[in-house]
Design brief:
0% strand, 3 helices, rod-shaped, mainly alpha, 146 residues
Length: 146
């Protein structure tokens, strides 16, 4: 009889807490074990952010190259050229700002997964793009006001 003898608790004494139940070997929404039906995998978000970062950089390069051709082509007609170049610049900046912003947001959301390198690259590209476009727009507004 090596087991210690257990006596019933005294009347009015608090009862001992129940031992914790072991976690189930399968994933549930609350436990985080493998096999849970996740609504959105953050690894997918990191991959999407990384792909959008590549697309955003490609759009930026294409916009820069096309802008040079637009300036050369439209420089012959001064009245139409100035308004067309300005409109091209505004539309391009807005599209790139939105692409970089979505890249940044998806990168931040995807950083919670195991694909932190892809998410980190997306955060860096998106953040640099947003800050760069914001400064470009701000500097052109200041330059036009002077």
């Amino acid at each position: 009889m090596s087991d210690p003898q257990q006596f019933p608790p005294a009347p009015g004494a608090p009862s001992a807490p129940a031992p914790p139940t072991p976690a189930p070997p399968y994933r549930t929404a609350q436990t985080g074990y493998p096999g849970a039906p996740a609504a959105r995998d953050s690894g997918d978000l990191a991959r999407a952010a990384f792909a959008l970062a590549i697309v955003s950089v490609a759009l930026s390069l294409l916009s820069t190259v096309l802008f040079r051709f637009v300036i050369i082509r439209l420089s012959y007609d001064m009245h139409l050229g100035a308004s067309a170049i300005g409109m091209y610049n505004i539309v391009g900046e807005v599209v790139l700002f939105l692409a970089y912003g979505v890249t940044l947001i998806l990168g931040i959301l995807g950083a919670r997964s195991s694909r932190t390198l892809q998410a980190g690259i997306a955060i860096g590209v998106g953040g640099a793009g947003v800050v760069g476009i914001a400064f470009a727009v701000l500097s052109s507004l200041i330059a036009s006001a002077i």
